[in-house]
Amino acid sequence: MLKPAAIFDPLDIMNLDLTPEQQAFRDEVRAFFVENTPQSFKARVRAGMRLEPAEFVTWQKLLHARGWGAPSWPKMYGGTGWDPTQLYIFETEASKADAPVQFHQGLELIGPIIFTFGSEAQKAKYLPAIITGDDWWCQGYSEPGAGSDLASLSTRAVRDGDHYVISGQKAWTSYAHVANRMFLLARTDPDARKQAGISLFLVDMDTPGITVRPVVTMDEIHHTNEVFLDAVRLPVTALLGEEGKGWGYGKVLLDRERGVTAATTTRLAQQLRGARAAAATARVGEGCLLDDPRIADRLAQLELEVMALEGMVMRTMAEAASGQDSGPRASMIKVRWSELLQEVTEFWTELQGYDAMHFGAVNNAPLPGPDPWAAKGMLYSRVTSIYGGSNEIQRNIIARRALGL
Ligand SMILES: Cc1cc2nc3c(=O)[nH]c(=O)nc-3n(C[C@H](O)[C@H](O)[C@H](O)COP(=O)(O)OP(=O)(O)OC[C@H]3O[C@@H](n4cnc5c(N)ncnc54)[C@H](O)[C@@H]3O)c2cc1C
């Protein structure tokens, strides 16, 4: 007899003690996700795949229409003004409905920097279009010789009257091929101490001199690019905040980027649900794979690990809400989240055996097999220990700040 797959429910497991108002809020977001998540997104979202750019825009517009376009922003900038518990409930309910995460580079990376450090004109120009989904931002930080050691970046910005002229090369720029805007770090003062000479610019991607070349990753999807900047002339109004302060703003972004992965820990439950369902439906003799105690054990172990991580995320969020510095915990969460994501998606792929290899078509064409996206999700998950500051770099931070080494 095949058993129905048990549903892994992070909210129930964490046994959150919700107030009646929070329960009403949970019911409201739950109903929204159940009614509005496009069926066609679900299998890929569950497997940890990213959606197509047009699908991200559709989803952003749906949330915007409901007034939830910027869940983590303050109300004065068009956000919801939600507190951390509401955000956590929102994320958890999204995960349970297999609803996608919002595309984060505008919303979570540059948007908050613009409303914190930008001019009034920049706020008026850029913030609304992030929330409506009309603007798509990409992040121009990494370069061929500057990834982990970002402060050694060599893209130059030279002041020329009312303009800056930018030349250099960016590497691994995700979605530069669909973005209409890029936030970019460039060196304005080559004589200053490494970090001090860097500035942050807001760039329109149709400015003459910008060339984007695709880099297809091992999941055979075009996510990322090389970007060449050949004497790109930007008005001085493209500078964000003060010249030479870009490193400080950029570091805030990197910390936030790690925080975003913390928010996405609720998503691990999606992949676990997929793995559990795969184990429950894979027939072995009279039963299914889930009857094998080794498989059940492994799933239980992963579920415990996810619960532990969620406990840590909640603690960090509570500390942040009360203004406490959570030390290197964002780095710890990033490392553990990426490791678990890789373990879970690998395990899910193993559970499917040969069926998991039913991929090979270019981009997101539908393929046969029980969970055709699981293997692509597994391959894509490799990036999580590289981007947002590689796990080795996070370990260095933990060693310094937690162990005093
Ligand atoms: C799919 C993908 C998408 C990306 N998207 C973007 C994007 O949109 N925008 C953007 O700006 N960047 C993006 N990146 C770039 C990413 O941030 C860098 O790849 C990352 O910072 C690592 O830099 P690197 O590739 O130059 O590797 P390196 O810095 O050369 O590191 C190579 C290896 O050495 C290790 N290492 C380096 N320094 C140390 C050290 N001090 N101690 C211990 N180990 C160390 C690293 O952990 C790594 O394993 C993306 C990368 C990928 C793969």
Task: Describe the overall structure.
With 405 residues, this protein is an alpha+beta fold. It folds into two domains: 10-93 and 252-401, Butyryl-CoA Dehydrogenase, subunit A, domain 3, CATH 1.20.140; 137-244, Butyryl-CoA Dehydrogenase, subunit A, domain 2, CATH 2.40.110. The chain is built from 13 helices and ten strands. It has helices at residues 10-14, 20-36, 39-46, 53-65, 84-96, 104-117, 120-132, 246-263, 268-281, 293-321, 329-352, 374-380, 391-401; strands at residues 137-140, 156-160, 163-170, 181-187, 198-204, 210-215, 224-235, 239-240, 283-284, 287-288. Strands 1-4-5-8 form a four-stranded mixed beta sheet. Helix 6 crosses helix 8 (246-263). The longest helix is centred in the last third of the chain and has 29 residues, at 293-321. The protein starts with 9 loop residues before the first helix and ends with a helix. Residues 1-5 and 360-364 have low confidence and may be disordered. The structure holds flavin-adenine dinucleotide. Residues 138-139, 141-142, 147-148, 172-174, 217, 223-224, 383, 386-387, 390, 392-393, 396 line the site of flavin-adenine dinucleotide (FAD).
Keywords:
Butyryl-CoA Dehydrogenase, subunit A, domain 3, single chain, 10 strands, 405 residues, Butyryl-CoA Dehydrogenase, subunit A, domain 2, 13 helices, four-stranded antiparallel beta sheet, binds flavin-adenine dinucleotide, 2 domains, alpha+beta
Pick out the low-confidence regions: 1-5, 360-364
CATH-assigned homologous superfamily of the largest domain:
Butyryl-CoA Dehydrogenase, subunit A, domain 3
Q: Give the termini distance in whole angstroms.
A: 55 Å
The 3D shape can be described as: globular
In total, the number of domains comes to 2
Strand runs, count: 10
Number of helices: 13
